[in-house]
Amino acid sequence: MVPVDYYVGLSAVLFTIGALGVLIRRNPLIIFMSVELMLNAANLAVVAFGSVYKTFSGQIFVFFVIAVAAAEVAVGLALLVEIFKSKKNINVDDLNSLKG
Amino acid sequence: MNSEMIVFLVLALVSIASALGMVFSRNAVYSALFLVLNFVTVAIFYLLLGAPFIAMSQITVYAGAIMVLFLFVIMLLGAESLPPSATLPWQKPLAYVLTSALAVEALYLVFTRARSSELVTSPDASLNSMESLREMALQLFSQYLLPFEITSILLLVAMVGVIVLVRQEKAGQK
Question: Of B3, B69, B84, B90, most Cβ neighbours within 10 A?
């Protein structure tokens, strides 16, 4: 028996670590991974509440979030590969113009 | 303290440590492997919460497909470790201050409004049967049919978009 607040607290901690990663890292790949961590933290809270209220809606929402995250990662990584091809560098500090 | 609580605390420790390892690793490949560990611990949390289908999707889609894609791109671009840059030197301390404020706020709200009466009951055998999966599938394909179809269109659009983005332009075609 674990109170649901523990799951929500853990989810909050993981989300904060993800936000920290987005703010302090300069490697766009690690920024992407931190975004994935934040999505995962939110999923954990949703499944925890769905489990408490004995409904499948939480699980179905998490299923959609996983599918959308897969699409997002595919497009994001393709963009990174293209940026690397044109600039030979993916440091986010150097990506300050929209023109390729 | 019951056994489920002990499992929860140990797994929570592992997941927080692997998340911190992901953020602070110098090498992006280590970051990706730490993130895989984190995804697997979250999948075990889903099992504890009585969501076996989501746990398995988590492992196949996140730990399997997405992280393999990440590792491919890290090694393709040779982006294991980028040289540190000196722009915005005040950004890191500010980021630490802001995220600790966020953490304190979130934990304060979670634990002052704690509803400890609401316990996550341990999944019994009925949850791991085919029957519960059947029920979830029925709901997914009746009440949530439209979002499901929209998701499939989204995946198709992403696939076409990726192919268009990374396509090699033919010589002479501008």
Answer: B69
| Multiple choice CATH, A4-90, 3.60.20.10, 1.10.287.3510, 1.10.3470.10, 3.30.310.260 | 1.10.287.3510
Kindly write down the DSSP assignment for every residue of B94-147, as one continuous string.
HHHHHHHHHHHHHHHHHHHS--TT-EEPPP-GGGGSHHHHHHHHHHHHHTTHHH
Q: Pick from A26, A66, A75: which is nearest to B82 by CB?
A: A26
CA of A98 to nearest chain B CA: how many angstroms apart? 16
Q: Tell me what ipTM this predicted complex has.
A: 0.91
Instruction: Convert the pLDDT of each residue in B65-121 to its tens digit.
Output: 999 999 999 988 887 777 776 677 888 889 999 999 999 999 898 888 876 677 777
